[in-house]
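Give me the 3D structure for LysR family transcriptional regulator.
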Amino acid sequence: MLQGVRHIKAFVAVARLGSFTRAAAEVNVSQPALTVQIRQLETSLGVRLFDRNKRQVVLTQAGRDLLPALQRVLSELDAVMSASHDLAGLRRGSVSIATLPSVAAGLLPTAIRRFMTDHPNIDVKVQDVVAEHIVKLVKAEEVDFGIGSRVGADRDVEITDFLSDRMCAFLPQDHPLADRRPLLLKDVAAFPLILTARGTSVRTLVERALEKEGLEVSITCEANYMSTAVGMVRAGLGVSILPESAIEAASCEGMRIEPIRTPGLTRKIGLIRKSNRSLSPAAERFVQLLTELSWEPLAHFANPGIRAKKREPLNDAQHRS
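Predicted structure for LysR family transcriptional regulator (321 residues):
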């Protein structure tokens, strides 16, 4: 392919300059080498391109007919090379992400702001969906990568954990559990519960913890989104078990949010990629930025690679800040 391009460039240069000597200097080859390239191109095309004598070089009719098409080939190739360099240099492109709503409301806006400051010509598209749908979008290659939780073994995706999210009880301000210390899962399970829908990462985690503790519960309501569950708590329909990051997804004013101290109630959040697929330069840089951000102090999230520090109970004043 590259040899063909050199031959076409040689032809266009001779046609424009009317001289093998000047064309050879322009394309940076010797005149004999340029002459060989023209002859090889003529052989390949099956037509004579130039009539030449000691005084002049002129295009044949076939050469005149082919010149515009070959000029377009070079122009389009230049455009392809320019676009490729722009993509590699992060001067253009797009990043598409499927993410949990809690991440979309919390960490992701900070990441997008930093990314767009450095790369203003790259579009960032976000789909906030439940964990199960994130994996489907990644596998279908409808997004570059996902940010979500494991929903089961799947060889078609690779998941790299980079955040953790502790589970909390979301309570009305005057609930009997509001001042319970430490608050355990068995305490919360004694009250009517509002849980996220089956198939969500939160529901899976809660059900596993309940089974491990041998607890039976009464479920009064289910919701696909954490913001809906929070609204149900505010309406007095029950108590909800949600990750701390739900604070970013819904207004929690007038509520109490207490961490549940039962072991195992921490949701792991990972970067989800399709197995054996390379990311675009823009998507690769965005993943790198997310990883860098995960090592900074984050509200309502923790990096599992950092030794956990004791985190204070949440209170209503913090929710309003």
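Residues 164-266+313-320 form a domain with the D-Maltodextrin-Binding Protein; domain 2 fold (CATH 3.40.190.290). Let me know if you want a second pass.
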